[in-house]
Amino acid sequence: MSTPYILVLYYSRNGSTSDMARHIARGIEHAGLEARLRTVPAISTECEAVAPSIPAEGATYASLDDLKNCAGLALGSPTRFGNMAAPLKYFLDGTSNLWLTGALVGKPAGVFTSTASLHGGQETTLLSMMLPLLHHGMLITGLPYSESALLNTAGGGTPYGPSHHAGPDGKRKLDEHEIALCRALGQRLATTALKLESDRG
Question: Is there a smaller number of Cβ atoms within 10 Å at the N or the C end of the chain?
């Protein structure tokens, strides 16, 4: 049997969502599970973008098997008018076979996002990403207010999942509270997945 892992699946244009993914991965690994970082290729409004099978930099592209075999999922996207980015939705739209077979039922999942403006739809984007996960029967893990960073943040951070305020130019780095919440989500996903695995055993 393969080693259980949490899939950290994201789309990132300017690097902020990718940075969040790496901090979530650190939280996962701190809690004792492997983190598998994967991304999705960009798409075009006219036709499917032709992308190399391996990206020039960063995480490799996700396969349906990465999703099927994960013990849990962290799903991340920049905000696009209060919704997830099209490339991530395009990937999720292709997961109907996993839905038909119930491959993701009962697995923990969390969501994360980055926005250019402080009130630019962080929470609606997170909620939009939860919808297909609920259809797949996944168990949504948000962030409880026992995470002190959630009470102190002046940037991103919501009970629905970590968020980041990247600024109008997209260059604002993650602050200490945003980083803490990313790592908290990673730990929460990993510990939940481990508990579920032990209950099945």
Answer: N
